């Protein structure tokens, strides 16, 4: 008599032991649109930058005359220029992009490398979009334009107009904080998490220091780049976390002790 009756039963299945599942979810429609829009915005920002006007001799003279009007946080950087410091800043900058690939050394993250690579690209694309649009719409002179040590051609170039804000620092912070956040989410009880975050914080700070010594950015440029990059690296993976990692529902069909078929909903809780 129960063969054709739809019966909803609540069955509890409690799984002990840790499964190698990802705490994140990737949705092709949502994330594809997000990433594509970020790349498009980056291209738009680069187009805006390319159409900016370069400085003339009169512009440079005006900039140098306004050196005393710079706020106290940035004043000490004005006039800096060092090609050597500029080259050194590129070292931790380049190393930072490899930081997330160190996650491949961890078995838990390695099993979900494709998913993590997608979220990583999405994070970098978001940071790139924010930076290029801001750099294109703003017109803050680089610190080296306040002095005469940098080559004249460099001081008059379009790149001299986009000090605000530091893209090097933003991208570095995105990469390092992404790596730290992902490791933490896959290994929440690991005792090395504080050290990983310390490394994540130091690398973009080093880039920022040398960018200022090179006369490429002011302190406030570095601070904003650091903040936005770290937020993207940390919170974009956070936004991809599954809403409830331990509780799941799924329909099942089976046969009871008396040989009667039934349909049910299985509640699975994993811890």
TrEMBL record:
Protein name: Phosphatase PAP2 family protein
Tagged with keyword Cytoplasm: no
Every Phosphatidic acid phosphatase type 2/haloperoxidase domain range: 118-237
Alphabetized Pfam families for the sequence: PAP2 (PF01569)
Lineage: superkingdom: Bacteria
Family matches, as SUPFAM superfamilies: Acid phosphatase/Vanadium-dependent haloperoxidase (SSF48317)
Keywords: Membrane, Transmembrane, Transmembrane helix
TM stretches of this protein: 33-50, 117-137, 195-212, 218-236
Protein source organism: Polaribacter aestuariivivens
InterPro entries with a match to the protein in the record: PAP2/HPO, PAP2/HPO_sf
